[in-house]
Design a protein that fits this description.
heterodimer; A: alpha+beta; 3-stranded antiparallel beta sheet; 2 helices; B: mainly beta; about 0% helix
Chain lengths: ~80, ~325
């Protein structure tokens, strides 16, 4: 009977405006069966500093965040402000 | 060809005036058996125990059908041609009726699946709640590994479904803790306005930065939790910081889900040590289609305006609900 704990990025969502949402799942596993699972969510906006972010998430951000996407996001943010 | 030993019980009725053909009319304890090509007990009447076997010479119940073949399934087919469309009457094209003649309340009729050892592994229980009121309940049973067969749920006589453990939708794996409804780990969004399609709870990390330059924020604490029910996200967050080098308007970000395209989430935060740009209170607004909020100050008769980021030790606590 082996009990292990793991944290993985189990979900990455790239929104239309370039925002990247990702979810980390922390699982307690006994003999391959997930006993409990908790989530931690993070969001990254186009152009944001990616230091400390998971490598696979950062890779997707770098692919997605072209200068055009960043500029469009910043313009939309201004437009969508109160 | 063997001569039936109970021929004497048949003979008295094998005449032209008889309206029936009776075997064992004398009710002797004398079995009756018909062979087929390959089955010595194609039809077996156990006279002593008053049982009929098909494919077995030792029927265990009133009617016992058995086929030990590992390749040919055993079954029975009821074929009917009724055009009746009622789902409540016992006159459909084909039906099976389980009748319990007992008038005692809460008696049962059962259908079980059993393993090779005869142990029930799952079943359906038809409960006659009250013979006087013709009231009934339908219950479902399963058996866990190395456990006992157990009721898992039932439709009560009023038509309500009661589950003992959990309900999962979208083929989600039901939780093994507590009792509740489990949604898929990845939402299967519904466009129907009356459908609840998601539930998730977790934590998130709020961030504090400037709109012109994000800068570097030195946090003393960051904590947040969220609960998402359908399109509605409720977040709690707290930020403690000792310094922030960003410039421009204050932004609070890192929210767990992107908001809908309209600006809607808002709250009045609890703040500590903040050097306000003006006004008498602060309001946090969620930016549309974003995971970031802006902060406004306002006061009586003073138009609201953006709070700027300030480089100082401060604490923020807030709670907000927004739509995604």
């Amino acid at each position: 009977m082996a009990i292990t704990k793991e944290t993985v990025v189990d979900q990455i969502t790239v929104c239309e405006n370039g925002i990247v949402l990702y979810r980390e799942a922390t699982r307690i596993i006994e003999d391959g069966k997930v006993l409990t699972q908790t989530y931690h969510r993070s969001s990254l906006t186009p152009g944001q500093d990616l230091a400390g972010q998971p490598a696979n998430v950062a890779a997707i951000c770098n692919l997605t965040w072209t200068p055009e996407v960043i500029a469009a996001y910043q313009a939309a943010q201004e437009a969508n402000r109160l | 060809m063997a001569i039936p030993r109970n021929l004497a019980n048949i003979a008295p009725h094998a005449n032209a005036s008889s309206t029936e053909f009776v075997i064992n009319d004398g009710s002797a304890d004398l079995n009756f058996r018909v062979e087929s090509d390959g089955d010595a007990n194609m039809l077996f009447v156990d006279a002593g125990n008053n049982r009929v076997g098909i494919g077995t010479g030792s029927p265990a119940t009133k009617l016992h059908v058995e086929n030990n073949s590992t390749t040919v399934p055993v079954g029975f087919r009821l074929v009917g041609g009724s055009a009746n469309t009622s789902t409540t009457g016992l006159d459909g094209g084909a039906f099976i009726a389980l009748q319990n003649l007992s008038t005692t309340s809460n008696t049962y009729s059962l259908i079980f699946s059993e393993d090779a050892g005869g142990n029930a592994t799952s079943g359906i229980v038809f409960q006659n709640n009250s013979d006087a009121n013709n009231e009934g309940t339908l219950a479902f049973l399963t058996r866990p590994s190395a456990g006992s067969i157990t009721e898992r749920g039932r439709f009560n006589s009023s038509g309500n479904l009661q589950l003992v453990n959990n309900l999962s939708v979208g083929n989600a794996t039901p939780t093994t803790s507590g009792a509740g409804i489990t949604f898929p780990a990845t939402q299967s969004a519904s466009t129907d306005a009356n459908t609840l399609d998601d539930y998730e709870e977790g934590t998130w990390t709020p961030t504090y930065f400037g709109s012109s330059t994000a800068g570097t924020t030195t946090y003393t604490s960051q904590a947040g939790n969220y609960t998402k029910v359908g399109r509605l996200v409720t977040v709690n967050g707290s930020i403690g910081l000792s310094a922030a080098t960003g410039t421009g308007q204050l932004r609070i970000g890192g929210f767990p889900f992107t908001s809908a395209s309209i600006t809607q989430g808002r709250c009045v935060p609890m703040v500590n040590n903040v050097n306000w740009t003006g006004g008498t209170y602060l309001i946090i607004f969620m930016i549309g289609s974003d995971t970031t909020c802006e902060v406004f100050y306002s006061a009586d008769d003073i138009p609201w305006a953006n709070q700027n980021i300030t480089n100082e030790a401060q604490d923020w606590i807030f709670s907000m609900t927004y739509v995604v």
